[in-house]
Specification:
about 220 residues, 7-stranded mixed beta sheet, Rossmann fold, about 25% helix, binds S-adenosylmethionine, alpha/beta, Phosphorylase Kinase, domain 1, globular, 5-stranded antiparallel beta sheet, 2 domains
Length: about 220
């Protein structure tokens, strides 16, 4: 008989034999070709750290993940929904994931994903224009940002206005998108300086061996 060890390492995030997983909110459906495990009547989707920076950060020891059941998450740079689908699993039916994406092609995949996940709200917009999508929105609990653009710090600051004080923001900072000539460490330091008036850094980490191009940072809104 094959026994699998399952441990909940953060609310809604599991380790199954050392691989990360979330409980599938859309039973029977895969999002990006991930493996599915059915154990004790529960369907888990394995969460690939090579495809998702949040999974990589969790495996590298990210502390106190503030994305939980019922959380309202503003997701900037959702792409086709790989990471967003796992956040949708974690927050469940009582939470929401507002996904901002400015690529038409990615938005088509996201719209498809929404058919089976009612807690994902796609927003086809530029994350530099939060007034287009935050107008009447309630404050969100968490910002998750993964936009590969030059003005990543500005995008965080202007969207940060929808965050409650002390709420968390998780940011995958891509130095190559900000500057190809500067030393990545200097780019990261500059990012921290630029957001320091609005955010306090809680934790930061590189994501090797899963990803070589980003610094993953966790902040608290001042
Ligand atoms: C690295 S990908 C995100 C991957 C995704 N977070 C995941 O883990 O599944 C970056 C995404 O940000 C989007 N993006 C870049 N600049 C943006 C902007 N200003 N507003 C909205 N989306 C943007 C890109 O179109 C791309 O889909």
């Amino acid at each position: 008989m094959n026994f699998m060890e399952i441990k909940e390492i953060s609310q809604g995030v599991f380790k199954i034999d050392r691989r990360l997983a979330t409980v599938n909110l859309a039973k029977g459906e895969k999002v990006y070709g991930e493996d599915i495990r059915r154990i004790g009547g529960v369907e888990y989707r394995l969460w690939d750290p090579y495809r998702s920076k949040l999974a990589a950060a969790i495996l590298k020891g990210l502390k106190n993940l503030q994305i939980k059941k019922g959380s309202n998450v503003l997701y900037l740079g959702a792409a086709t929904g790989t990471t967003c689908s796992h956040i949708s699993d974690i927050v469940g039916d009582s939470g929401s994931v507002y996904c901002v994406e400015n690529s038409e092609e990615s938005m088509r995949s996201l719209l498809n994903l929404c058919k089976s996940r009612e807690n994902i709200f796609p927003i086809f917009s530029d994350a530099r224009n939060p007034e287009e999508y935050t107008g009447s929105a309630e404050k969100v609990d968490v910002i998750y940002q993964d936009v590969s653009s030059r003005d990543q710090s500005l995008i965080l600051k202007i969207n940060g206005k929808v965050l409650r004080s002390n709420a968390a923001a998780y940011v995958a900072i891509k130095s190559q998108s900000i500057s190809v000539s500067k030393n990545p460490r200097e780019v990261y330091r500059q990012f921290m300086r630029e957001v320091s008036g609005d955010f306090t850094l809680s934790e930061s980490m590189t994501l090797e061996p899963f990803d070589m191009k980003h610094l993953f940072a966790s902040f608290r809104k001042r």
